[in-house]
Design brief:
Blueprint (H helix, E strand, L loop, with lengths): L28 E13 L4 E7 L2 E7 L10 E10 L7 E12 L18 H6 L1 H4 L3 H23 L3 E2 L5 E2 L11 E4 L2 E5 L4 H11 L1 E9 L12 E10 L4 H22 L1 H6 L13 E3 H12 L10 H15 L3 E5 L12 E3 L5 E6 L1 E6 L2 E8 L4 H10 L8 H4 L9 E7 H9 L20
Parallel strand pairs: 3-5, 6-10, 12-13
Antiparallel strand pairs: 1-2, 1-4, 2-3, 4-5, 7-9, 8-9, 10-11, 11-18, 13-16, 14-15, 16-17, 17-18
Helix pairs in contact: 3-5, 3-11
The chain binds aspartyl-adenosine-5'-monophosphate (AMO).
The site of aspartyl-adenosine-5'-monophosphate (AMO) has 22 residues, from strand 11, strand 17, strand 18 and helix 11.
Length: 444
């Protein structure tokens, strides 16, 4: 006779409690699971600071044999108010079990809030340094930004899409394309979902994508990664880029609201503040912005765009004069925008060949977004491709769709790491990504 596998004898196992919920269990026995964040043995008594996904808590017991830090453990014990313990409660241990013992002490002291080591060392050990409370707080905040992005866009009629990251041509121009050997054919890693998100407007009218994109940045800067998370939006049936900026304005307000609800502890831990998003984020045309930083701050702006110092000064101006951490810089000159950008109109309605409907959004001194209205007319697009000295043959997988009735459309992309870093006062975008890829780093 074969016997059916029997379920393990069900001891009345306590449900797991998270450390953040201890206050609801004052005086009760709870079961916690987590990691040995810190430990102290005072002979008769042992203290274990247990870290779980929701926070840390102090556990105190006697005759515990303490495993190495970071070991996974399970603790059963009674919750007792303790004003000096983190969170105001401690757990008096009645049962302590090592679930998975660490075999080595971690190379960094995880509980330390500041590691006095070379930043490269921190990144070398990223697989375990991410367990530090500050490190993980940044990634939690980013996760909530992304969640807020999804939620708001779905509520506003957007459909999520997924576009190829192995492509036959660049979307943004410039030299920062990663080349790839695609079975003997030249391919590239996508710099942006730009061309595909536009095509998808013909399908769903309003689309968004959350995905990594790739830029072969030769120079190590505090704002550039070689792989970053691009939060992309594209919407059809717009009148102008004003509609796109209005959507982004509402989206940012909703994301900040979500952070207020879900990440207050992380902002407190990092000593950062969640910005108020004005109902109408200030807007300034690029040429006026350049003149302003020269006249007000004496800064001569290099290039055709704003240089990093000009971005910082312009932001400072709008923080001081309008109390806004955000500012839209609008009406970029043609020479500073990619081929797909729609021309601006003159007062008489004719197209202005020198100005576009492209914009950037600055936040606390740095560009976090490019966006704008795109060309939707096939003939105009082909003229633009030629004017930018691109190969029209190589663009047919994109340009053909404009023969089949594309509505006026526009969109934008937010660099998730730049937004996260600026929100939290993190000086380098590398620390706003779990496993950054920079000029010299391919591991871990
Ligand atoms: P752009 O090239 O300006 O525009 O990129 C959009 C946003 O992406 C972020 N970003 C980066 N973040 C980290 N490392 C990098 N190397 C890096 N490069 C860019 C910035 C930037 O504002 N297709 C257009 C967007 C659109 O118009 O919809 C585009 O990719 O935050």
């Amino acid at each position: 006779m074969t016997t059916e596998p029997q379920p393990a004898a069900t001891t009345q196992k306590l449900p797991r409690t998270l450390t953040r919920d201890l206050a609801q269990h004052d005086g009760q026995t709870v079961r916690l699971q987590g990691f040995v964040h810190a430990r102290r043995d005072l002979g008769g008594v042992q203290f274990v600071v247990l870290r779980d996904v929701s926070g840390i808590t102090q556990c105190v017991g006697s005759s515990l044999s303490l495993p190495l830090p970071e070991s996974s453990v399970e603790v059963v014990g009674r919750v007792k108010a303790h004003p000096k313990a983190p969170g105001g409660f401690e757990v008096q241990v009645t049962d302590f079990r090592v679930v998975s013992a660490a075999v080595e002490a971690p190379p960094l002291e995880i509980p330390k809030m500041e590691w006095n080591v070379n930043p490269e060392t921190m990144l070398d050990y990223r697989y375990v340094s991410l367990r530090g409370l500050r490190e993980r707080a940044a990634l939690k905040v980013q996760g909530e930004i992304v969640y807020g992005f999804h939620t708001y866009l779905r509520e506003h009629g957007f459909t999520e899409i997924s576009t190829p990251k192995i492509v036959s041509a660049g979307a943004e121009g410039g030299a920062n394309l990663f080349k790839l050997d695609y079975f003997g054919e030249q391919a590239y890693l996508a710099q942006s979902p730009q061309l595909y998100k536009q095509i998808m407007v013909g399908v769903f009218e309003r689309v968004y994508e959350v995905a990594a994109v790739y830029r072969a940045e030769e120079h190590a800067t505090s704002r550039h990664l070689n792989e970053y998370l691009s939060l992309d939006v594209e919407m059809g049936f717009i009148d102008s880029e004003d509609d796109v900026m209005a959507l982004q304005n509402g989206l940012l307000a909703a994301i900040m609201e979500r952070l207020r609800e879900t990440c207050a502890a992380e902002f407190t831990l990092l000593g950062a503040t969640i910005p108020d998003v004005p109902a109408h984020i200030p807007r300034i045309p690029l040429m006026e912005a350049r003149a302003l930083v020269t006249e007000k701050y004496g800064h001569q702006v290099g290039g055709k765009d704003l240089d990093p110092e000009a971005e910082r000064l312009l932001s400072q101006h709008f923080t001081e004069t309008e109390g806004s951490d955000f500012v839209f810089v609008t009406k970029y000159p043609r020479a500073a925008r990619p081929f797909y950008t729609h021309a601006d109109h003159n007062a008489d309605g004719s197209l202005n060949p020198d100005l576009t409907r492209g914009y950037d959004l600055l936040f606390r001194g740095i560009e976090i977004t490019s966006g704008g209205q795109r060309i939707h007319d096939h003939a105009m697009l082909m003229d633009s491709i030629r004017a930018y000295r691109m190969n029209p043959e190589a663009m047919t997988g994109y340009s053909e769709v404009f023969k089949f009735g594309m509505p006026p459309h526009g969109g934008f992309a937010i660099g998730a790491e730049r937004l996260t870093a600026k929100l939290l006062g993190i000086a380098n975008v590398r620390y706003a990504r779990a496993f950054p890829r920079d000029r010299h780093r391919l591991t871990p």
